[in-house]
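Supplementary Methods. Inverse-folding protocol.

Structures were first reduced to a discrete structure-token string of length 259. This string, shown here, constituted the complete conditioning input.
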């Protein structure tokens, strides 16, 4: 299992650059940012690339109800991102027909972003199957190890039906380490549980107690044990839950580092 490290978009460059360099030193394969209305994930990736050009870059995910394929392509060009190192995660956002939106937009994405590997945000069975059948990867979010294993099976089924190899499966695992770890995970999870119908349905399917989906531990050893349970992921992206400083984020990256 490869391991990446992920942050929220808009991280200060004075934090993003040394953090990326530290992740490269620790043996991470890739570094990721989300994307949200307040900041563009691709801009955060440009800061990472400046400090750690050897790492693959990933954004997960850009909502297509907010940014068109042409706008995304313009940002990739403007920022000078190496397309061969970029994993571009896309999702339906608040689209009324998410599955239709993603299926119908894929040809436009391919045309606008040649050479970029396109990864589909997938939680439900149909979206997982679509990722397996037509995209370059699947990206999971807010899953337990057991749920991720079932979702991977759905990606594999979609690929098999389409007559192709299963694409790589990525996934965020929210990770907090230290005395306030449980509070950090609970706060992060509570925001997503009621974000929109897709997340509400997903957490209903999970049927897990609030504040428990992810890794919240007091020690690095326990964090590693919990992370290693996510065997269904080809690349586990540690989504660090810490204050936006080099020391705090670096501590989570160190505790969760591959090894």
């Amino acid at each position: 299992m490869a391991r990446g490290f992920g942050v929220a978009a808009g991280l200060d460059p004075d934090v993003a650059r040394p953090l990326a360099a530290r992740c490269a030193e620790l043996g991470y394969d890739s570094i990721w940012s989300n994307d949200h209305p307040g900041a563009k994930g691709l801009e955060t990736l440009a800061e990472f690339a400046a400090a750690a050009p050897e790492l693959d870059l990933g954004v997960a995910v850009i909502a297509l109800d907010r940014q068109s394929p042409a706008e995304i392509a313009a940002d990739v060009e403007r920022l000078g991102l190496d397309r061969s190192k970029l994993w571009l995660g896309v999702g339906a956002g608040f689209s009324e027909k998410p599955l239709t939106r993603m299926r119908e937009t894929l040809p436009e994405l391919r045309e606008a972003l040649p050479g970029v590997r396109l990864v589909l945000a997938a939680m439900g069975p149909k979206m997982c199957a679509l990722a397996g059948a037509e995209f370059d990867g699947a990206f999971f979010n807010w899953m337990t190890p057991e749920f991720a294993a079932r979702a991977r099976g759905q990606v594999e089924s979609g690929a098999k039906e389409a007559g192709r190899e299963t694409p790589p499966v990525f996934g965020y695992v929210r990770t907090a380490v230290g005395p306030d770890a449980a509070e950090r995970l609970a706060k992060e999870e509570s925001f997503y549980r009621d974000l929109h119908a897709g997340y509400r349905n997903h957490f209903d399917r999970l049927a897990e107690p609030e504040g428990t989906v992810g890794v919240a531990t007091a020690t690095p050893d326990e964090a590693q044990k919990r992370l290693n349970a996510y065997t269904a992921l080809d690349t586990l992206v540690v989504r660090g839950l810490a204050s936006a400083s080099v020391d705090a984020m670096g501590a989570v990256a160190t505790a969760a580092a591959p090894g």
